[in-house]
Design a protein that fits this description.
The complex is a heterodimer of chains A (about 375) and B (about 575).
Chain A: E1 2-13, E2 16-28, E3 33-37, H1 44-52, E4 59-64, E5 67-71, E6 76-77, E7 85-88, H2 100-109, H3 117-130, H4 146-158, E8 164-168, H5 176-193, E9 196-201, H6 204-210, E10 213-218, E11 221-226, H7 228-233, H8 238-243, E12 248-256, E13 264-269, E14 272-277, E15 287-292, E16 298-300, E17 308-318, E18 323-329, E19 332-338, E20 349-353, E21 360-363
Parallel strand pairs in A: 3-9, 3-10, 7-8, 8-9
Antiparallel strand pairs in A: 1-2, 1-4, 4-5, 5-6, 10-11, 12-13, 12-15, 13-14, 15-21, 16-20, 17-18, 17-20, 18-19
Helix pairs in contact in A: 2-3, 2-4, 3-4
Chain B: H1 10-32, H2 50-56, H3 59-92, H4 98-107, H5 113-124, H6 130-139, H7 151-175, H8 179-187, H9 192-221, H10 224-229, H11 238-247, H12 255-290, H13 305-331, H14 341-345, H15 350-357, H16 359-392, H17 398-406, H18 413-426, H19 436-461, H20 464-472, H21 477-504, H22 509-514, H23 523-532, H24 536-567
Helix pairs in contact in B: 1-12, 1-16, 1-17, 1-18, 2-12, 3-7, 3-9, 4-13, 5-7, 5-13, 7-9, 8-9, 9-12, 11-12, 13-24, 15-24, 16-17, 16-19, 16-21, 18-19, 19-21, 20-21, 21-24
Classes of the chains: A alpha+beta (about 375), B mainly alpha (about 575).
Chain lengths: ~375, ~575
């Protein structure tokens, strides 16, 4: 439904030319909830705005549906008001001089085909009901709360039933509790409407909980693309592992190559040998980084299958639902999570068991 | 940068501003080398440095330099000191009756500088001044104790005149300052005095300097006050000297020399424009940090509260009440005399009757009306599109365009008038010279600086995503202009429109150069000429009516100002 081919974008800033987007390739299917995730300045918003037609890329091609909306080769640029899109802005951009109804009716009134008064009213009312703003139609926009403004912005984006919905960090201006509720609601709503959605966020939790597919971006490029589970469990790069969730890193070298069937080989670290999932075709002696999530580390009393390290508990931090345990293993630091009722004390020496299937070695 | 934006051809806008600002200045420079007597005789073969030699070897020119420096410095010191005091009193202390300052200070804009000066002549001239006459008879003095026809008189009046604008610029600066910045200093161990020195003053300094530069330029370019108070006594500053060179009755006018003298202004204009824009960008950098609408803690004035209120009453009395009362009284006089029981017994309406019967008043009124309407509308429309390019586009020349639009602020109406005079005489295939269009074009160029400043600020208030939301909702650029920009910026449009009318109607400098007989005589010229010819009570009658009309317009601006605050309430 959205296709981006070899998208490049340069900016002229005071400090010179910036290569903000570097050869993005995307193919988003009909009805998919697709998220661009990355730190600020990674080019995700620029990419979204290029799809909207609010920025002109330097090179590449963009399709919305079957329509070619931008092509550097064919010198095509369809302005935003002729693209079949709806968009929610980070600031919501609710026009303060119009009331709720008129804000939502705006896209319908700008359509080429003039709707009858009844048709227009019916469509607006239906859309306002969809976002639970029915009954507020006559309220002036400045008298809406942040959450209501966000829902009105969504209604405005959906009212003319576009093929594509673009969302630019729509939850970042809500308070924490409302954000949590809205995450679920928003995903359910766009799934119910069945609209193809391109979502931009820097919040990994939003990306993981809402998306069908997540593309992690860094420095203008997509570094990994996959389902939320894949992205979390099998980060392909240190950047992805580091950006999403808490992660432990251990430096090492490949000590024995991977077994063909399981993909598991051995890595020599400063604190001992570990059996890990090795990258494809990792050679003997190649330097790697072993990645393991805190929740995958078990603290055990006896050595189970050899994949264990000895560590000293440096600090225990009460987090409410868990006890974060910081350990030193030789010169390395590791973090793991314990149940809050754990009896372990600071300074204790413990054995850490690292399940081989949870230890993922990445090329350094 | 994208072709989707509301640009409406930045090149077109750039070209218009270039024509409006650069072409006259180009002719001004060219003319300064012309040794022909009249602009019409100008040719490239009669070029030379004679004008410069003549002007800058004349020791009298250096006296004018000194006079101008004293006059500008003096009036800025008086004006800014008063404005800072008033702004500080309303924003940072618990003085009583603040509404009088908020409402009263902007009202003083309704008294044109020319009328203000004339009113003080009626009060303090050595020959007829009411106060002088009373003091003389009271103390049996042989000579008038105070002479308003002096550098001191000019400084005092211009100082008063600078207050309202400076005040209006300073109030948001004082209000915008986040008290947390001062509290942070206090928590870090700074005593109140060093907090004031190291934090408050530092934060305020760029804004204060910007206001001072702006007002120094205003004082430098004003013509009416040194014209009314200095010309009769032979005390010249730059603006009046240029006028005198052109209109000296004894010789044929030597336009080239006036141009050579005006070059000083051009250099000051370029210099200050550069520094002013730099200073403003620093002010804006500070405001971004502090822009929220806080109420700083108010200082308890204690016993000084009454004194503070007294100061305000004193200022308002001098700036607005006194000139108005003097004009009102004089307008009912048969002949000029100090207020007395006998004078009050002979009050007459004949001056107002005279206005109704005197033909020139009607045509001047009509000319003025058209001229200000054209000027105000043209300024609003052009300023909006210039600001749109400056604030919203990525057009390569947007900074240059901004500075170009600001440049005319530092160029006096007199000089702008001369510059356009050359242009209109050169392009005589267009019958502009001698019509109200000549003045309207000249004024539009002059007011572009104010118009674009206001529009820049107003556009920055309209969040960019409000515009983009319209595009992605399917609205074309001109529909976005109509449905988003126009309603959101309506208060600014009307505000600028009225401000321009308020100023175009009162300024005499530029029209004095560009007017050619009754066809384009406007009200300010009529007042100037009638005053020159001694029809003082009639001038008082026109002045009284003009002040009343301007007062109503000022009230309208304030009303819109209040509405604007309501419209801008949402936190977008």
């Amino acid at each position: 439904m959205i296709k981006i081919h070899n998208l490049h974008m340069y900016y002229q800033t005071e400090r010179g030319r910036v290569h903000a987007v570097r050869g993005i390739e995307l193919d988003i299917e009909q009805g998919e909830f697709f998220t661009l995730l990355g730190p600020s300045g990674c080019g995700k918003t620029t990419t979204l705005r290029a799809v909207a037609g609010l920025e002109t890329p330097t090179e590449g091609e963009i399709f919305v549906g079957d329509d070619l909306v931008y092509s550097s080769a064919k010198k095509t640029f369809v302005p935003p008001y002729h693209r079949d899109i709806g968009m929610v802005f980070q600031s919501y951009a609710i026009w303060p001089h119009l009331n709720v109804f008129e804000n939502a009716a705006f896209p319908l009134r700008e359509m080429k085909r003039k709707l009858s008064q009844q048709e227009l009213r019916a469509k607006v009312d239906k859309t306002l009901a969809l976002v639970h703003l029915d009954g507020l139609a006559d309220r002036p926009a400045p008298f809406l709360s942040g959450g209501q403004q966000q829902r009105l912005a969504l209604a405005r984006a959906l009212v003319k039933e576009p093929r594509v919905l673009l969302l630019d960090e729509p939850l970042s201006n809500l308070d924490a509790k409302l954000r949590e509720e809205t995450r679920v609601e928003l995903r359910e709503l766009v799934k119910r409407v069945g609209i193809t959605t391109l979502y931009v966020t820097h919040d990994q939790l939003e990306a993981l909980t809402m998306s069908d597919t997540v593309a992690v971006m860094n420095q203008g490029q997509i570094v990994q693309q996959g389902s939320p589970v894949e992205i979390y469990q099998a980060p392909a790069q240190q950047f992805v592992a580091n950006f999403i969730g808490l992660t432990n890193f251990l430096d090492g070298r490949v000590a024995s190559v991977a077994d063909k069937a399981t993909g598991i080989g051995e890595v020599e670290t400063a604190s001992g040998k570990l059996r890990c999932l090795l990258p494809d075709a990792a050679a003997l002696g190649e330097s790697v980084i072993v990645v393991i999530r805190p929740e995958d580390i078990n603290i055990v009393t006896d050595t189970v299958d050899g994949n264990t390290l000895r560590g000293k508990i440096e600090a225990l931090i009460f987090m409410g639902d868990a006890l974060e345990c910081q350990l030193s293993v030789g010169a390395q630091k590791l973090r793991t999570k314990l149940h809050p009722s754990s009896a372990l004390r600071q300074g204790e020496i413990v054995s850490l068991q690292l399940p081989p299937l949870s230890c993922r070695a990445l090329r350094a | 940068m994208s072709s989707s934006r509301l640009q409406l051809g930045p090149y077109g806008i750039f070209l218009i501003v270039l024509l409006l600002v650069s072409v006259p200045l180009f002719f001004l420079i060219l003319g300064s080398f012309s040794t022909a007597r009249l602009p019409g005789d100008f040719s490239l073969s009669t070029m030379g440095l004679e004008n410069y030699v003549k002007i800058y070897s004349d020791p009298g020119t250096w006296d004018i330099f000194v006079n101008t420096i004293i006059y500008v410095t003096g009036s800025v010191v008086i004006g800014i000191t008063l404005a800072v005091t008033l702004a500080w009193l309303v924003e940072r202390t618990n003085m009583p009756g603040k509404i009088w300052i908020y409402a009263g200070v902007p009202m003083t804009l309704a008294v044109p500088g020319m009328l203000q000066a004339m009113a003080w002549v009626l009060l303090l001239s050595p020959r007829i001044g009411f106060i002088n006459k009373s003091l003389q008879s009271l103390f049996g003095l042989a000579e008038a104790p105070i002479n308003i026809y002096s550098l001191g008189g000019m400084i005092f009046i211009e100082g008063l005149r600078l207050v309202p604008t400076a005040f209006l610029m300073l109030v948001p600066l004082m209000r915008g300052m986040d008290p947390a910045l001062e509290e942070a200093a206090a928590v870090c161990g700074a005593r109140p005095f060093s907090t004031a020195r190291k934090i408050t003053m530092r934060l305020l300094a760029p804004g204060l300097v910007a206001v001072m530069i702006y007002q120094a330029m205003t004082a430098l370019e004003v013509f009416e006050i040194p014209g009314i108070l200095g010309l009769p006594a032979g005390i010249y500053v730059f603006s009046t000297k240029i006028y005198a060179v052109i209109r000296s009755a004894t010789f044929l006018p030597v336009y080239g020399q006036a141009n050579a003298l005006a070059m000083v202004y051009l250099f000051i204009a370029l210099f200050t424009t550069y520094y002013y824009t730099r200073m403003i960008s620093r002010v804006e950098r500070y405001t971004i940090i502090t822009g929220k609408g806080y109420r700083p803690r108010l200082l308890d004035l204690g016993r000084w509260r009454a004194a503070a209120f007294g100061l305000v009453v004193f200022y308002l009395f001098f700036a607005i009440a006194l000139p108005f009362l003097v004009f009102l009284y004089t307008s009912f006089l048969g002949f000029l005399q100090a207020p007395s029981a006998a004078a009050f017994a002979t009050l007459t309406l004949k001056n107002y009757r005279f206005l109704a019967e005197y033909g020139e008043v009607g045509s001047a009124l009509q000319n003025t009306l058209w001229m200000v309407l054209i000027t105000a509308t043209a300024t609003v429309v052009l300023s909006f599109f210039v600001s749109l390019v400056v604030v919203r586009s990525k057009f390569w020349g947007r900074k240059l365009l901004d500075q170009l639009a600001f440049l005319p602020h530092a160029i006096p109406g007199i000089v702008m008038g001369i510059a356009f005079f050359w242009v209109f005489l050169k392009i005589d295939f267009l019958p502009i010279y001698g019509t109200i269009w000549a003045m309207a074009i000249g004024f539009t160029a002059g007011f572009l600086s104010y118009g674009t400043r206001s529009m820049n600020a107003a556009l920055l208030q309209v969040h960019k995503e409000l515009e983009e939301a319209a595009y992605v909702s399917g609205a074309r650029p001109w529909r976005t202009l109509w449905r988003i920009f126009l309603p959101l910026m309506m208060p600014s449009f009307i505000g600028v429109w009225i401000w321009v009318i308020l100023h175009a109607v009162r300024i005499a400098g530029l029209p004095l150069i560009l007017y050619e007989g009754p066809q384009n005589q406007v009200l300010s010229i009529l007042i100037w000429n009638m005053w020159d010819e001694g029809y003082v009570p009639a001038v008082a009658a026109i002045g009284t009516l003009l002040m009343l009309a301007l007062l109503l317009l000022t009230l309208a601006v304030r009303y819109i100002g209040f509405r604007r605050q309501l419209v801008q309430a949402p936190n977008l």
